[in-house]
Amino acid sequence: MSDSDDLIDELRRIAAGYGAAPAEVVPTRPDVVIVRAGEVVVKAHAPGSEKAPLAGRMRAVGHPALRGIMLEPVTEEVRVVGDRLVTVWPAGTPVDHTAPDAAPWEAAARLLAGLHAVPARTLPPLPEAGGPARVTAMVARLRSGSAAERVVRRALACLPMPVPGAGAGADTGRGSTTHGDWHMGQLVRIRGEWILIDVDDLGIGDPAWDLARPAAWFAAGLLAPDVWHRFLGAYRAAGGFAAGANGDPWERLDLPAQAMTVQLTAAAVANAEREERPLDDVEQVLVDTCQRIVQFRSACHSVPTQ
């Protein structure tokens, strides 16, 4: 029996202790394992996750200030199974990605605005949010040296990325409670209401990074303008301040959106290379967008092309 089988068996055992239904593995990203039993899911977090930051995040999402915004765990306990950290959560219904027109953009925007409005000092201490670090980590995984990879690396080198540890405190003026890795997959519906999930990157940081993914898709021409404006309008109407209260949002969103474009492109290029296939149309659009970042960022003028 493999280590993976042992892990799944233990997750099934934990799930069975909470759920009345048979425990089944739920498809998710490769570095995470999720088992569902009835109304409970058990999650094995990515290899290498650190227990202390995750434990702090679990305490934070159990705090009343985040009730109705972030999903509250069944238990705040962080278990250790082999070399993996494991947590237990209520099960919800995810966004239906086969029905993009029904995606809850306004509900997501209001939840993010609510999250950003929670004063960090009211929560148990949180680490730095994971957004910017995810960008550099994704690019670091590229190994082939292909032309597309070189474009991605050069685009990242052009960006004035935040220094780790800078702006992480609640008293810096740019430090807010932020999700750290928000996208439509980070929403579930429970008892008729949408709520944010996934604590892995929750922390203190610049809330503009939580808007980076839809902003990047919009800037690349991959998200319809009306959807983007609905999302941004709902966010601002709910008191969200990450993009300013009104007017041009790009003074705050330009860097996060460009950095997210680099992250998305790095992931796309890595997937295509792993599957030994050419880039598809969307992936090529992302590479072309990275090339435009290189062309328009003045910092790129001194970055080597190889």
Radius of gyration: 20 Å
Report, as a whole number of angstroms, the end-to-end distance.
45 Å
| Secondary-structure-derived class | alpha+beta
Number of domains: 2
Question: Largest sheet at a glance?
Answer: 5 strands, antiparallel
CATH architecture of the largest domain: Alpha-Beta Complex
Sketch the topology as an H/E string, one letter per element: HEEEHEEEHHHEEEEHHHH
Mean pLDDT: 92
How many beta strands in the DSSP annotation? 10
The CATH class of the largest domain, by name, is Alpha Beta
Helix-strand layout with pairing:
Blueprint: H1 3-16, E1 24-26, E2 33-37, E3 40-44, H2 51-61, E4 75-81, E5 84-90, E6 93-94, H3 105-117, H4 131-140, H5 147-158, E7 176-178, E8 187-190, E9 193-196, E10 203-205, H6 212-219, H7 225-237, H8 250-274, H9 281-296
Helix pairs in contact: 3-7, 4-8, 5-8, 5-9, 6-8, 8-9
Describe this structure in words.
The structure is a single chain. The chain is built from 9 helices and 10 strands. By secondary structure, it is α+β, with helices and mostly antiparallel strands. The chain folds into 2 domains: 88 residues, Phosphorylase Kinase, domain 1; 203 residues, Aminoglycoside phosphotransferase (APH), C-terminal lobe (Aminoglycoside 3'-phosphotransferase, Chain: A, domain 2). A 5-stranded antiparallel sheet has the order 1-2-3-5-4, sandwiched between helices.
Provide a compact summary of the structure:
By secondary structure, the protein is α+β, with helices and mostly antiparallel strands. The protein is built from nine helices and ten strands. Helix 5 (147-158) packs across helix 9 and helix 8 (250-274) crosses helix 9 (281-296).
